[in-house]
Amino acid sequence: MPLPRLVDTALDRLVVPGWSRLGYVARSAGWRALPAVDGRTVIVTGASGGLGAATALGLAGLGARVEMVVRDRGRGEQARDAVLAEHPGASVEVAVCDVSSLADVRRYAAEVRDREAAVHGLVHNAGVLPAERTETAEGHELTFATHVLGPFLLTRELRPVLRAGSGPTTPSRVVLVSSGGMYTTPLRLEDPESRTGTFSGGAAYARTKRMQVVLAELLADDLAGDGVVVHSMHPGWADTPGVASSLPGFHRLTGPLLRTPAQGADTVVWLQAAAEPGHSTGLFWHDRAPRPTHRLRRGDETPQARAALWTLCVDAVAS
Ligand SMILES: NC(=O)c1ccc[n+]([C@@H]2O[C@H](COP(=O)([O-])OP(=O)(O)OC[C@H]3O[C@@H](n4cnc5c(N)ncnc54)[C@H](OP(=O)(O)O)[C@@H]3O)[C@@H](O)[C@H]2O)c1
């Protein structure tokens, strides 16, 4: 039976019960099985481990053709083999692309456009939480490049194949995997490259995760005419290599409460497969339900700030 709406909302607002394994277990008892997605091609970035690998596994289990985008081919092939071990007949390929590199994103997207008539799904899952400020070869701060610029550019570059993959009842779907950490900050654009002050990986992470949520709304508007829907989501707290290495204290403290990677990835898979998210666009989801993007209404972005984020992305990928 589905959880009553009031109880679900209370779990969400209390954070720990909602975002941990407890929230998943309570909510998932009322969920329906996901439909098959045979014949759909879905690209998943950051698929060599953690939630990306779990997303690939979930989608392959539903019959999707999955392209696992990774930085390191060897790790990618290991992750692909793990998917094939569970789903021997699945169609799963590995592609190498560093999504923090605009040049590599352009190269990869051109290669996809050359070989694929249509792409039905794109999951921007790749994520980082660096301890120190790091610049890409193109001079962008790593968190900003990985979470915002790379996904923005890849979505735009894949627009023709996403458009081609869209049908009247089954739109192509783009999903940005954000984080509940984005609730800790409003949209802040005064220093997107983290050039001033003392660098905090956590602050850069939260800021760029907030940008992803707004970006999903902006991309949703931009792609509406192409029949492509765009959503963002947060997975709750899941036990992944990234959490263990970047947040060891949090990992130790919350250990038994953490979700499995499959539980964290469930809503990503659902957003690609279920009928309901194909009928809306630009929403922020957690555990298969739309969630508010701000805890307090006064945190809402102004139209000017939203337009400024768009311009920031357009200018950054143009130069
Ligand atoms: N786990 C959680 O509780 C949690 C909570 C909130 C949000 N999230 C979000 O969920 C996503 C996945 O997180 P995770 O916990 O699974 O992290 P993870 O275990 O660190 O996995 C991150 C994945 O992203 C890949 N990656 C990083 N930079 C990349 C780049 N430039 N190009 C291509 N791939 C790249 C990594 O590849 P390598 O193997 O090469 O490092 C790895 O496969 C992230 O966006 C994260 O912010 C996770």
List the topology elements:
Blueprint: H1 5-13, H2 16-19, H3 21-28, E1 41-45, H4 50-61, E2 65-70, H5 73-86, E3 91-96, H6 102-115, E4 121-124, H7 142-157, H8 159-165, E5 172-177, H9 201-223, E6 228-233, H10 241-246, H11 248-254, H12 261-273, E7 284-286, E8 289-290, H13 303-318
The structure holds NADP nicotinamide-adenine-dinucleotide phosphate.
Care to describe what's here?
This protein has helices spanning 5-13, 16-19, 21-28, 50-61, 73-86, 102-115, 142-157, 159-165, 201-223, 241-246, 248-254, 261-273, 303-318; strands spanning 41-45, 65-70, 91-96, 121-124, 172-177, 228-233, 284-286, 289-290. The protein has 2 domains: 1-31, no CATH class; 34-318, NAD(P)-binding Rossmann-like Domain (Rossmann fold). It has an 8-stranded mixed sheet with strand order 3-2-1-4-5-6-7-8, with helices on both faces. It is built from 13 helices and 8 strands. α4 packs parallel to α5 (73-86), α6 (102-115) packs parallel to α7 and α7 (142-157) packs parallel to α9 (201-223). The mean pLDDT is 95. With 319 residues, it is an alpha/beta fold.
